Amino acid sequence: MADADDVRRLALALPHVAEIDSDGFDFRVADKGFVWSYPERTPGKPRLIRIDIAVLFVGDEAEKQALLLGEPDVFFTTSGYDGFPLVMVRLAEVTVDRLRELVTDAWRMRAPDTLAGDLDEVAEA
């Protein structure tokens, strides 16, 4: 089982990552978000930052649908994310190793090509 501390540790281990001040967690590379805590919105109630759920950038709609259909206990989405390559991950349902893969993949998809090689250097160290 993973948690918000694991998200923070894994994200900050990647190169060129900035943590944005928030009530939960919010990580960016080159000013592009790749993983953040889920801002749950319920009509008539204030937004609730859920640190037990991470929003992750994925490659495209096909990858999003594959994750949602393949592991519905782990991944979900809401209508507010329709049309965006983003999924929500129930952190308690993933291992830290799986979370590492997901966060790293999200970083790869958001980092510009000029920074991509820096990830390989970190992995070799």
Word description of this protein:
The chain has 125 residues and is an alpha+beta fold. The chain has a single domain, classed as Aspartate Aminotransferase, domain 1, CATH 3.90.1150.30. The protein is built from four helices and six strands, in the order αββββαββαα. The protein has helices spanning 4-12, 61-70, 96-110, 113-124, and strands at 17-19, 26-29, 32-40, 48-57, 75-76, 86-90. The chain has a six-stranded antiparallel β-sheet with strand order 1-2-3-4-6-5. Helix 1 (4-12) packs across helix 3. The longest helix has 15 residues, at 96-110. It is globular, with a radius of gyration of 14 Å. The mean pLDDT is 92.
Looking at the overall shape, the CATH architecture is Alpha-Beta Complex
- Based on DSSP secondary structure assignment, what is the total number of beta strands? 6
Uncertain spans, ≥5 residues at pLDDT below 50? none
- Label the structural class: alpha+beta
Count of separate DSSP helical elements: 4
Spatial strand sequence of the major β-sheet: 1-2-3-4-6-5
Mean pLDDT: 92
Look up the CATH topology. Aspartate Aminotransferase, domain 1
| Distance between the amino and carboxyl termini | 26 Å
Q: What form results from the Cα inertia axes?
A: globular
Q: Specify the CATH class.
A: Alpha Beta
What proportion strand? Answer: 25-35%
Helix fraction, binned, reads 25-40%
Number of domains: 1
Largest sheet: 6 strands, antiparallel
